[in-house]
């Protein structure tokens, strides 16, 4: 159970930290109408619900702001030592990418996330921030987009369950 909680927190932080690069990319794309049209249509090879929802420019801007706020709030939860460990992991990952190396399948960027030694209060704060930002982002969506997002999440949940059941059958 503790590992599952840590995994959720690690995913939340990784998502928050990567959201900035998407925000920068979207800001660059918003300067050119042709590039903007490309960012609003789903791209082949990309996964996830956000790319297939057909977000408007205004929706993209609102979601990016929510993500920036969420990241800032989560970063404020960490101690200076925890921030240093996260920064070191990010720099190591960046160096690995620049060297042309890709992580092995199943290897996670935050494999040493448990080393952060988050307190229960920190975990609770991060969980609350994530839940709040999720609700704010969903409020930006139209009912049709919300339905698409909900369907995507349900499909992802079913795939996870199938993988877990398959892994339990293979010792």
TrEMBL record:
Q: Which residues form a coiled coil?
A: none
Compositional bias of kind Polar residues: 30-42
Q: Give GO MF terms, alphabetically.
A: unfolded protein binding
Q: TM spans, by residue?
A: none
Q: Which GO terms describe its cellular component?
A: outer membrane-bounded periplasmic space
Record's keyword annotation contains Secreted = no
Segment forming the signal sequence: 1-26
**Region Disordered: what ranges?**
30-51, 88-109, 151-171
Checking InterPro entries in the record gives:
Cpx_auxiliary_protein
Alphabetically sorted, this entry's keywords are:
Signal
Q: Where is the composition biased (Low complexity)?
A: 97-109
Q: Which PANTHER family match?
A: PERIPLASMIC CHAPERONE SPY (PTHR38102)
Descriptive protein name: P pilus assembly/Cpx signaling pathway, periplasmic inhibitor/zinc-resistance associated protein
Q: Which organism is it from?
A: Nostoc minutum NIES-26
